[in-house]
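Internal QA ticket QA-208
Title: Verify multi-chain structure generation after dependency bump
Assignee: T.L.

Test input:
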Amino acid sequence: MPSGSAQTIRSRIVLDLDRCTGCRACGAACHVGHHEQTNLVPGIVADVAILPVHCRHCEQPACLAACPRAALYRDEHGFVRRSELLCIGCHSCAVACPFGVIPDEFKRHVAPKCDLCVDRVAAGGVPRCVATCTAGALSFVELQESAESPEYVGGRIRSRTILRRA
Amino acid sequence: MTTDAIAICPFCSMGCTWRLVRDAGTRYRAEAPVAALDYTARGGPNRGSLCGKGNMALELLTHPNRLETPLLRLAGESRAAGWDEALGHVVRRLGEIRARHGGRSVGLLLGSGASSEEAAAAARLARAIGTPHLDLCAPADHALTRGLELAGARPARVENVEQIDAMRAVLVVGDLFTLAPCAAKPVLDARYRDRRHTVAVLAPTRTRTAWFGRPFLRCDVNGEAAALAAMLALALERAQEPAPAWAAEARAALARWPLPDLARRSGVALERAAALAAALAGEGEAGVLLASEFGARARLDLVAALAAMLAEATGARFLAMLEGPNSAGVRAVLRAEGFPGADGHTMPELLEAVVRGDVKALLVFGSDPVAVSPGSLAARAMASAALTVVTAALPGPAVETAEVVLPAAVIGEKAGTVLPALGPSVAMAPVMPPPGWARPDLQVLAALAAALAPDGGAAGVRGGEEPLAARELFAELDLFLRAEGREEVAVEPGELQLLAEASATNAAEGLHTAQLSWARYAHPEARLTVSPALASALGVRAGDRVRVRSNWGQAELAVRLDAGLPEGVVTAPHRDPAVRGLLSWRREPMMRSLDLRPDRVHVEPLGEVGGA
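Actual output:
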């Protein structure tokens, strides 16, 4: 592990709606990189657009609170992660998540949970979904405390023309 | 961890590169110590990104269903055989057929994943057999490359993605982002870096690419050729010196069509076409990007020819994005070798000749004609040939019926040269051996050519075809525009036009991608896209199943809604086996390529008895 790896990493995945083409490469990269268990949900908006919905690694994670086995924990980087040993695949986190980003893909009896590709991020890289994005729609950036910029919607999804696909 | 040679993505002609990473710890196959794909290097046209198909490419090398031994299907029974027995059988049967019917009764098809060296070896084999019938087996790419070959236009090529970045005006024809998702990054960079840039998309439906069109030039169904002709006429009016060699003939030919007439036939307003033609011809870099895709357009060959001419007339760069990684290279080699030549059959002609019985033996290298062709002709050709030989890496409909199946290597397991759409040709090095007894097609082609002594005299391969004069090309356009006018009248009430689209499902239904987990992961089933108005008229909702009947067959498909569809039009992915049976294609006598036009279909909700 490189030095300073235990520091909190404030960068999160931001989706630029203006650029997403819905090719699902992010999901494929996640699928391949996480032992064929996809940790992000393809959001299908009114059967018109497909876009990835990512785990936000919340300040007060509902999934963490709901876990009966304490399998979910906040790691040294500030990411909300799932212990493969403790998880019993009970779906409590999936039910609790207010963003619906824990997909119904419980392989090997463990919940699919985004770990922000901590193996790559801790070494200074970016998550697999961000690296693979064919349209340049996903970025891994440090979040601002307040959403002053009108380009930011909800902090994790930005768009200049929100209703482009309406 | 060590890294291996650079390999090239086998799923489209974008030419994305990656390294196959060796890792002694994790092995997919004992003899194939490849652990991961590393595509993060910034060098290739993908610039560190990779589409979903590409992400799952390792599966192709390590697929559990890979064919590993030759198969012989004799008297309806299939059994494994050794290479000597299988090749001996092929040579003996070919010898018999050639002795009885002559060398011209053998036809060869070459897949779009073949290397340029394999194309040259196939040409040598065809000469040894004494047949002029050798062509590329990739229908959409075939039509597009034929159009470009015969059009005589020689626009500047887009050499690398940096040139797309720098473009100030781009015209995209077809669904580029579905065919080659990695092309989205440079095009959207051009689109968003400076919001005054023009990235126009010409398409009849709101495809994945059309979302990003600014402007989105929505043409009528089959209206692309007319729209491009109008833009070409406008561009030729103001073409700078020196004008292209074909300009005078083109001007004279286009003068027969008044511009408002062309605009009306295309469905694109004249002022919008004029603005785009002016933007392409204006200051700074411009480009015309054409995606090889059937269905949402008739006469892909004409569309390709006109797009290339438009690029040359406006001084824009031109990019033809093909489905196959080496379709362009295979066609270039075959053309240089004189195949299929004036007296040989092109791919659609060959399939027809096999069904007619004129050609007895069909040899297919590295492709599955049934899986890649719309309609049922390829399946009938496979059934009616006296001898069918297929080399394939994975099972498919042609493998199910062929008399001899030879296991093949895929890109990554064989050496060879590939010519991608962007950039120079790439020399591939094999990074691992093929599984089992599979061999690269190059060895098979060479072995067959060595075993079949030339039968002398009957070779009959004459030199390659000359490009058509612009006059002839526009006469073809005339015929097309007039005929379409007549056909429109023939649509009966209650009938819908089925556009065979290159949807995302289509991308997942590629020759190999259909069997990767990408297909299951991303696109579980093909759907019929209908407008909300039609859905409410039929009384169905999204996800409901309907029965679709055409003149050729029927299929049951689930419905998906798209508010952007034109009236009277439904779309479905043509690669899907169920949809394939609904379609038919015709052979264009002049360009000798395949044309897939919208078929007329009836749609009825499932569960109700009978039709009208």
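Spot checks passed. The interface with chain A takes residues 37, 39-40, 46, 48-56, 58, 177-178, 181-182, 184-185, 188-189, 192, 208-209, 211-212, 504, 517-518, 521-522, 542, 560-563 of chain B (CB under 8 Å).
Status: verified.
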